[in-house]
Amino acid sequence: MTATIATTLDRLLSTATTSSNSLQLNDALPSLERLKREDVPAVLTAKMLARLEAMANCPLPAPEPCPEDKLLELVILLQATLPSRNRSEIDQAVLTEAYLQMLRRFPQSAIAHLQTAALERCRWFPTIAECMDILGEADTRHHLVGKREWVRSRVSREKQTRFDSIMLALWAREMDQAGIDALPLAVKRIAVERGYLRMVDGEFVVRHESGNRPPALLTADARPDPACNTCQDVGRILTLEGEEVACDCVHEMAA
User: Fold this and answer.
1) Burial per residue of 19-46, b for 16 or more beta-carbon CB atoms within 10 angstroms, e otherwise
2) What predicted TM-score, i.e. pTM, was given to this entire model?
């Protein structure tokens, strides 16, 4: 069974209000810029989780195009150091304008890569096509892409941990009926599939029969060390999108 539970888990596990979420979204990009991984604690409060989730979902602006003066410096440098295949002065002026038009959409980091690569590889002043090939090698993504991916992974792990805690409480029969009734329907259906709850007269109740498989976190010590940090209960994981899927990394080991 594949169950979508992200929305319901958010409603269950987070105390953030709609207005505070809006404020967090507005501040998400500056917060992501300031964030240091070592400052993120191992255990997150609901407020911390909400702030990290806002950072994980914030759109990143396109990288700033390279300044025109830097582009001109590049063209002049390449013209001065690489032969230009006998072009006239008029040709050079037209060429410079053509290159500026084609290159101005690229960020400065990509232009810096073009300059280094052209000087190292090219015997002649590179054509626009050759410049495009070299620019295709450059990483033009926003500098916060890697950090945002780490935040997304941290949010996903936190949600998985909280979800596993619910499953553990149900397996250990430590949740009373009022707590079970308060669980989102999607969570209760997963608990039924795992053998922790059952349906009686249309109501979800704890399953008292023994023999249902315990959550993987109880048997983690029995696995080889280091254990896989991704595999969770009964070989299934909760994706960032909130879908419970079969884990394909059963034999991968943590770094």
Assistant:
1) eebeebeeebbebbeebeeeeeeeebee
2) 0.57
Structure tokens at 27: 């501040």
Domain limits, the chain: 6-59+145-246, 68-135
Phi, psi for 151 (deg, rounded to 5): -60, -45
Contact 110, 140 (CB under 8 A): yes
CA distance 2 to 238: 10
Half-sphere exposure of 56 toward its Cβ, with a 13 Å CA cutoff?
A: 18
Q: In which region does residue 86 sit, left (phi positive, over 0), alpha (psi from -120 to 50) or beta (all else)? A: left
Instruction: Report the candidate in 142, 5, 125 with the shortest Cα–Cα distance to residue 74.
Output: 125
Model confidence over 198-241: pLDDT tens digits?
A: 999 889 998 877 556 666 655 554 443 333 444 444 445 555 55
